[in-house]
Write a structure and sequence with these properties.
Length: 451
């Protein structure tokens, strides 16, 4: 080979080496971001298959440029998520009764308390023949009037309605039914409020408890359970669902989610600024975890077994703490049962399972100096701000609800003795276009209050 040829060869090899170094360096630089995506893929695939009993996990992946390159595979209790099947590998582990947990190794969560259906009025209840106006309300909620592509984007998968404690309307999308568990996402926060209420009744804690963590000093030590439920802790947060934001980092990269959120800096004085935060709810459940020492089984013992929520699965993180912000699965009818429990103020099967004034306090909006969510109370959304001003003109003033990512809703309307559940996958639908509020308004009009 000539000197010129050897020189060219060295240049080419040098360029290739630099390219390889750049690719490897770029991968390691972007790896934290990529792990968020593969963690989402692993957890989603595990839960959709193992909890929901479906084999189409990609149907629940959000629109994101990374999605076409994500891969997942399930082998027994382990589901692996990766990029192209090789990079940024994350593992989710299934445990019966507890669902799926992201961790390097299988977690030891113990044996889940068995939950029956004895005290659940909606389990096994017959599906009624609804009134014509109810049928029309459900048709609108499913987008029957829309072109097929818009109806698919609306993404309604289930609507179930109860009035006076009985199911009066029910409809499901193809592939879903009364026995298909669905993820509530942030509706879990409202159920976490009920779990706190159970433990307040049992005198495990009070909503005014402060000094919640040994590592909290200064202003952090002043944060109360009530402020965490009302999202006014003052802790720094960003609820944007994008790769590598605090909320997705917490959900898909942290083994102890409550500790991660608790370690963030203070941005405001406690009780002065309201900012929606999944981290706050996970701090609450880390406190419950420490106080009770029950672990992942706590919701099953304190709520699911009491209400007969046999389908309910509240997935924990690798520390064994339920992910109270986001990871509660249940069938539509069991979500309905949760709403009925709230409507009845914790009165259930001849027992008072919450403090008698719990729901009244939990749905009262407290004034703060500044808020991003004027109708948010103690982990429940309401239809009035702290001054009593009505927020939505089409919803009854006293209505309150649980609300979750991708279009999940659980409405309670005391004046109509009504509970409404709407579940779906609607990542590209704005809340105003979800038709959920309109569904409730239509049902209130269709169902006169008679007992």
């Amino acid at each position: 080979m000539s000197r010129r040829g050897r020189t060219i060869r060295r240049i080419v090899l040098g360029v290739l080496v630099l390219a390889v170094v750049a690719v490897i360096g770029g991968y390691w630089y972007e790896r934290p971001l990529l792990l968020t995506g593969t963690g989402y893929a692993a957890h989603n695939a595990c839960a959709v298959r193992q909890i929901a009993g479906r084999d189409d996990p990609t149907a629940d992946l959000p629109p994101n440029p990374l999605v076409p390159y994500l891969r997942d595979s399930t082998d027994g209790a382990r589901t692996t998520g990766s990029l192209w099947g090789r990079l940024a590998i994350q593992k989710a582990w299934y445990t019966k009764g507890y669902g799926c947990t992201l961790a390097d190794e299988a977690p030891d969560l113990g044996t889940a308390t068995a939950v029956g259906v004895k005290d659940n009025p909606f389990s096994g209840a017959p599906t009624p023949t609804p009134r014509k106006a109810v049928t029309q309300a459900l048709a609108n909620a499913f987008g029957d009037d829309l072109p097929q592509d818009q109806r698919a984007a609306l993404g309604t998968r289930a609507v179930v309605v109860a009035q006076h404690g009985k199911i009066v309307g029910e409809r499901y999308a193809d592939g879903f039914g009364p026995s298909t568990p669905q993820l509530g996402w942030s509706m879990s926060k409202s159920v976490a409020n009920l779990l706190v209420g159970r433990l307040v009744l049992d005198e495990v804690l009070t909503v005014d408890d402060a000094k919640l963590r040994k590592d909290w000093k200064g202003d952090k030590a002043k944060i109360t359970i009530d402020q965490l439920m009302r999202m006014s802790s003052g802790l720094s947060w960003d609820e944007t669902y994008a790769l590598a934001t605090p909320v997705t980092t917490m959900l898909y990269r942290e083994e102890d989610m409550g500790a991660y959120a608790a370690g963030l800096d203070m941005a405001h004085k406690p009780g002065t600024y309201q900012q929606y935060s999944s981290g706050s709810t996970n701090i609450i459940c880390s406190v419950l975890h420490e106080r009770t020492e029950v672990g992942a089984d706590l919701p099953r013992q304190e709520l699911f077994a009491k209400l007969g929520l046999s389908s309910a699965v509240w997935e924990p993180d690798a520390s064994g703490t339920p992910v109270c912000s986001s990871y509660l699965w249940a069938t539509p009818r069991d979500w309905l049962t949760i709403g009925q429990f709230a409507l009845q103020g914790g009165q259930w099967a001849d027992q008072q399972l919450l403090p008698e004034d719990w729901m009244a306090q939990s749905t009262e909006v407290v004034k703060v100096d500044k808020t991003e969510e004027p109708g948010y109370a103690a982990s429940w959304w309401t239809n009035k701000d702290a001054a009593g001003k009505r927020i939505s003109e089409i919803l009854p003033r006293e209505a309150y609800w649980a609300q979750g990512h991708d279009g999940q809703r659980l409405y309670v309307v005391p004046s109509a003795d009504l509970v409404v559940v709407r579940l779906g996958f609607s990542p590209q639908v704005e809340p105003a276009d979800l038709r959920a509020d309109a569904l409730v308004a239509d049902l209130v009009a269709a169902l006169p209050v008679t007992k």
